[in-house]
Amino acid sequence: MSSSLEQAASPVLDTRRTGRSFVVLRRLLKARMAPLGLVICALVMLCAIFAPLLAPYDPAKTDILNALQSPSRSHWLGTDDLGRDILSRVIYGARVSLLVGIVAVGAALAIGTAIGISAGYFGGRVDNVAMRLMDSILAFPALVLAIAVATVVGAGISAPIFAIAVVYIPTFARVARGQVLVTKSRSSCSRRIQLAPSTPGSWSAISCRILRRHSSCRRR
């Protein structure tokens, strides 16, 4: 009897999941600026991938005799003070921009989510210490904090990565903490947490369940 009910309910669940994906895609396409943003992101990614084929010149090659040239047929965006082609440097710069953006946001997402889940799950002193630390970071203006972190880290590509990650960690931490608290308030999730064994792996298992079931708990 139970197996037949599960088989009957599985197509309904699959239809709901498929319907939700279509709803998200439909809302994305209805947004006026979403297609333009997708096109810009696609162009930046294509430039980063095919930079050696698209760049007309070596971005590091200097030509003092052609320094500070205005846009022309040979140099579409002109040259800089060292005679380097600006268009080639912009195309190759897409690689650095994507690397910094992906690594910085990925690190902020991982660290902030871990802090938020820990604060929301354990509560008490852990929650107070973690959230006060996040509030102290948010108290500084983002630009000032980024400049300070970049100054401490030093020159190089690691400086903007650390700066962006530190600025965005509190945002991800507060969002993750709020969602964990909402999910814990549900009766099914709270019973699962109360009945969980006090083993080292119980926290990670319950955290994964909370994250996996968060979207379904919200819609119920």
Could you characterize what this model shows?
The protein is mainly alpha-helical and 220 residues long. It has one domain. It has helices at residues 2-30, 34-49, 51-54, 86-122, 124-138, 142-153, 158-185, 187-194, 202-212, 214-219. The two termini are 25 Å apart.
Provide the β-strand percentage band. under 5%
Radius of gyration equals 25 Å
Helix content: over 70%
Give the strand tally: 0
Short description:
By secondary structure, this protein is mostly helical. It contains ten helices and no strands.
Per-chain topology:
Elements: H1 2-30, H2 34-49, H3 51-54, H4 86-122, H5 124-138, H6 142-153, H7 158-185, H8 187-194, H9 202-212, H10 214-219
Key structural traits:
75% helix; 220 residues; disordered C terminus; 0% strand; mainly alpha; 10 helices; single chain
